[in-house]
Amino acid sequence: SGPHYPYPAAWGIYKEPPADEFLVHNLEHGGVIISYNPKQIKDQELTQLQQQARSLSYFNGRIILTPRLNLDTAIALTAWNYLQKLNRYNSTAVKVFYDTHIVRGPECQQGLCPG
């Protein structure tokens, strides 16, 4: 939580990270943000992570995959009030985190979230 812009970033996969002030709003709207450190993740793992993010977005598109150079681990899974760090790609951990936290932000009511 914290100060944020009045509108969220577009959902999807990013090559350049959106400003944190956008991302906080995405979390508030029930999104899951997957951040990765390009220096700590192997190319094959990143490809798998991108494929999984696309696949998860078909279920519910409230997902952002973004690089984060100052990340102290390979991958960080973030939802409103939740953070899970991964030293390497783990498809099961990503899926469980997503299933547990998607559409659970403070602005969501019974699974319905704004923009």
Write structural notes for this entry.
By secondary structure, the protein is of the alpha/beta class. It is built from three helices and five strands. A five-stranded mixed β-sheet has the order 1-3-2-4-5. Strand 2 (32-36), helix 2 and strand 3 (63-67) form a beta-alpha-beta unit. Helix 2 (43-59) packs parallel to helix 3. The two termini are 18 Å apart.
Query: Percent of residues in beta strands?
Result: 15-25%
Give me the CATH superfamily.
Glutaredoxin
Kindly provide the radius of gyration, computed on alpha-carbon positions and rounded to a whole number of angstroms: 13 Å
Named CATH architecture: 3-Layer(aba) Sandwich
Give me the secondary-structure category: alpha/beta
- CATH class placement: Alpha Beta
Count of helical regions: 3
At the fold tier of CATH, the topology name is Glutaredoxin
Mean pLDDT: 94
Integer count of domains: 1
N-to-C series of helices and strands: EHEHEEEH
Strand order of the largest sheet: 1-3-2-4-5
Q: In one word, what is the shape?
A: globular
Largest sheet: 5 strands, mixed
Give the helix/strand layout.
Elements: E1 12-13, H1 20-28, E2 32-36, H2 43-59, E3 63-67, E4 75-79, E5 82-86, H3 91-101
Parallel strand pairs: 1-3, 2-3
Antiparallel strand pairs: 2-4, 4-5
